[in-house]
Amino acid sequence: MSKIAFIFPGQGAQVCGMGKDFYEQSETAKAVFDKASELLGFSMPELCFEENDRLDITEYTQAAMVTTSIAMMKVLEEKGVKPDVAAGLSLGEYCALAAAGVMSEENAITTVRQRGILMQEAVPVGEGAMAAILALDAAKIEEITGPMEGVWVANYNCPGQIVISGKKAAVEEACGKLKEAGAKRALMLNVSGPFHSGLLTGAGQKLGEVLSQVEIHEPVIPYVANVTAQYVTEASQVKELLTKQVSSSVRWQQSVEAMLADGVDTFIEIGPGKTLAGFMRKIDRSVKTLNVEKLEDIEKVTEALKA
Q1: Which positions are annotated as active-site residues?
Q2: Which of 6, 98, 105, 305 is the most buried (most CB within 10 A)?
Q3: What is the pLDDT along the chain (307 residues), one digit of tens a residue?
Q4: Buried b vs exposed e over 56-79: b needs ≥16 C-beta within 10 Å?
């Protein structure tokens, strides 16, 4: 019996026009975008579909990504495709919460709007940085960055790709040391803050206050938490994990490995881009990985699942 995971991309995958075909051709998807506009007080279709400067600003990006992925997911579910487990990369974890029935779609959208604002405000622009380290062993990266002040491992994406985060000067210094240690490349990322670093601990605490007002339900299916890379099956764990997630490492590779160990053999990435599918190829090429980013992909996925 095939086990299906819904997986959701994070910030950085956003693109102008994402979800437009869903909005125009599916009443179910349109309702999600329109509800987001009503809840947040600005036009979500305008933000996602028309050229603008806001889509890449964290406080807008996060709500736009979650709205789009949830709209796509609901159309897929309408076709009878249901997950056995859900997971999301960083921001994408909120889509996984909606998929698992832990948080209502409305609460997921309004919470990430607050999360985006808090993360944007946590560190003045220009003071923080992130960098992708390619083709260097995780243990070596931890050994070098561990004793350094102001730098943290932010993302364990897949074998050969780890992201570090922190104070700009510290990240630049770490990049130099990691290249000397054998990293193929150390690429500074075009981001607006040092996400998933200790510099965002305060933002996490403020997010905890926001989450204290959010209704959390028992999971209908399990989801995998970024912080622990373990299945979450109880509502009592959720708020603390989401509070920590802002400043903790995203253990994506380990999260995928936990799902593989549980027998998941089909991963459906829902949202713009194919970032997670790319990671999957490096984690385990043998499993089936499908994508939903265009409306036409819904039919492709349903056909592939029958095969």
Answers
A1: 90, 196
A2: 6
A3: 689 999 999 999 999 999 999 999 999 999 999 999 999 999 999 999 999 999 999 999 999 999 999 999 999 999 999 999 999 999 999 999 999 999 999 999 999 999 999 999 999 888 999 999 999 999 999 999 999 999 999 999 999 999 999 999 999 999 999 999 999 999 999 887 899 999 999 999 999 999 999 999 999 999 999 999 999 999 999 999 999 999 999 999 999 999 999 999 999 999 999 999 999 999 999 999 999 999 999 999 999 998 7
A4: bebbbbbbbbbbbbbbbbbbbeee
Q: Which residues contact 307 (CB under 8 A, 6 or more apart)?
A: none
Query: From the DSSP assignment, how many helices (H) and strands (E) are in the chain?
Result: 13, 10
Q: What global pTM score does this model have?
A: 0.97
Amino acid type, 16: C
The three-class DSSP label of residue 121 is: helix
Beta sheet of 128-134, edge-to-edge order = 151-158, 161-167, 128-134, 185-188
Residue type, 279: F
Q: Facing residues of 167 across strands?
A: 128
